[in-house]
Design goal:
The chain is 60% helix and 25% strand. By secondary structure, it is an alpha+beta fold. The longest helix has 91 residues, at 6-96.
Length: 207
């Protein structure tokens, strides 16, 4: 007698289908899980990337601001250097300037009759690293009124006496005859070496 176990075959078929369904379910669950993980990772990375981009943009803005500030500082430095040079120049000019009032008074009071001024100038020399200052007095003498040698001697003597605190040395540089408005005159040039700072110049510098 032959017996067929139909129930066993059906069970094997059902078991195979169940295994297949479970495999398919696990596969899709795994795939879904991976998609969720990748999605979360993608969103996280996007957030991190966005933060990094915003930080980079902020850094770039800060760099541009710092660059502008640096350029301003650079321009301010250039301007300050120019101002320092100008101040140095003005300080030198103030240190070298001459107060003319007392000197012109001495010169005018020392001139004899028959002599008149043409020009008073100023020059600087450097000898052995020391700055020397000179006044150059130029003028004319009319020989019809006074003798040139006598007038010049009188003038220089008065300059020595009246300018004792101002002039250190007085030199006659040249005398020559010339024609001025059709008349014979003598043109003279006297050089006066100035002493160090006079009292009034010190007061001006201190004030």
């Amino acid at each position: 007698m032959i017996e067929l176990n139909l129930l066993k075959k059906r069970w094997e078929t059902f078991h195979k289908r169940l295994v297949f369904i479970r495999f398919i379910s696990l596969y899709f669950l795994g795939l879904f899980f991976l998609l969720i993980v990748f999605g979360i990772n993608y969103l996280t990375n996007n957030t991190v990337i966005s933060r990094i981009k915003s930080k980079i943009e902020k850094i770039q803005k800060d760099l541009m601001s710092d660059k502008a500030s640096f350029e301003k500082l650079k321009s301010y430095k250039i301007k300050s250097n120019l101002l320092v040079k100008k101040l140095s120049f003005y300080n030198d000019e103030i240190a070298d300037r001459i107060i003319w009032t007392d000197k012109l008074i001495i010169i005018s009071e020392s001139m004899p009759y028959g002599m008149w001024l043409w020009k008073v100038s100023y020059r600087k020399d450097y000898e052995m690293g020391k700055k020397e200052k000179f006044l150059i007095i130029e003028g004319f003498i009319s020989p019809e009124i006074t003798k040139p040698r006598k007038a010049i001697s009188f003038f220089m003597e008065n300059l020595r006496k009246k300018g004792d605190g101002v002039f250190e040395e007085i030199f006659l540089r040249r005398v020559r005859s010339e024609k001025f408005e059709g008349r014979k005159v003598y043109h003279f040039e006297i050089e006066c070496k100035l002493k160090g700072k006079s009292e009034d110049e010190r007061m001006v510098k201190v004030s």
